[in-house]
Write a structure and sequence with these properties.
2 helices, 3-stranded parallel beta sheet, alpha/beta, about 90 residues, globular
């Protein structure tokens, strides 16, 4: 349970995309809870329309660079690691 009350906090949530999407409902529930405590930079991880192929229209390099920028902005990181995934790591 989070006890942080800073609503300006930026949160980077990490969950499996290319490793499999079987836990997407779990990701959404976590994201909804995290949103009570700040801005979730990676809210799209909980979108059921996102599949294991990744994000249409973005190359691996573009995703990497964007995610790295988000990580640098984030005040905290929350990772759901049930499904093995190199991207989460």
């Amino acid at each position: 349970m989070l006890y942080v009350t800073d609503t300006d906090m930026k949160i980077y949530f990490s969950g499996s995309v290319s490793g499999g999407r079987k836990d997407v409902e779990r990701y959404l529930q976590i994201i909804l809870q995290l949103k009570e405590h700040g801005l979730v930079l990676t809210e799209h991880i909980g979108d059921a329309r996102l599949d294991a192929r990744g994000e249409p229209g973005l190359s691996d390099v573009e995703i990497h660079d964007r995610d790295l920028a988000w990580l640098r902005q984030a005040d905290c990181l929350v990772a759901e690691v049930t499904t093995p995934s190199l991207g989460v790591g």
